[in-house]
Specification:
The protein is of the alpha+beta class. It has one domain: 3-Layer(aba) Sandwich (Aminopeptidase), CATH 3.40.630. Helices cover 25% and strands 33% of the residues. The protein has an 8-stranded mixed β-sheet with strand order 1-2-3-4-5-6-8-7, with helices on both faces. The termini are far apart. Belongs to the acetyltransferase family. RimJ subfamily. It comes from Pelagerythrobacter marensis.
Length: 177
């Protein structure tokens, strides 16, 4: 599955992407904000990531700039009980450019097309930038803060939980009557 937004191309990870993925994520300031990526992030982790099968209802994507194909990160949705969970990372050189928000919007469009009704997400409390991204995407804070394991940190850290109900929402650009 592919998706084109204004500035980005979302596409499946390919085996040959492992080195670019490694180059973007093998940065402690990136990995420490993720729940599932280990630190240190090694070449075999990137090779395993690109080799994993992608379930059709839970896609994950490489995020590349549409104008020059530069890889800026990854985004996707994973099963989380009876709902889906949004996850993303953006390589540090691309922080602050709105890529996480744009990629997140694109994945939410895809999630809606796939029939997902509710998407959850969280961010570690010491990463408020991710909370700003989630709020821009329309997520609401659930009021729940809990300990969440972070492989990159090697332990637990407090994370704020968010949710977004897709059911009944209007498509982008449409207004409710």
């Amino acid at each position: 599955m592919f998706h084109r937004s204004q500035r980005l191309l979302l596409r499946p990870p390919w085996p040959e992407d492992w080195s670019e993925i490694l180059g973007g994520i093998a940065d402690e300031s990136v990995v420490r904000n993720l729940a599932r990526a280990p630190w240190p992030y090694r070449p075999h982790h990137a090779r395993e990531f690109v080799a994993r099968p992608v379930p059709p209802h839970f896609p994950r994507f490489v995020v590349a700039r549409a104008d020059d194909s530069a890889m800026v990160g990854c985004v996707g949705i994973d099963p989380a009980g009876e709902v889906a969970e949004l996850g993303y990372w953006i390589a540090r050189p691309y922080w602050g450019r709105g890529y996480a928000t744009e990629a997140g919007r694109a994945v939410l469009e895809i999630a809606r097309m796939l029939g997902h009704r509710r998407i959850v997400a969280s961010h570690f409390l010491d990463n408020p930038a991710s909370g700003r991204v989630l709020r821009k995407l329309g997520f609401a804070c659930t009021g729940s803060v809990r300990l969440r394991h972070s492989c990159g940190r090697g332990g637990e850290a407090l994370a704020a939980e968010y949710a977004l109900d897709l059911e009944g929402e209007c498509e982008p650009g449409m207004r409710a009557a």
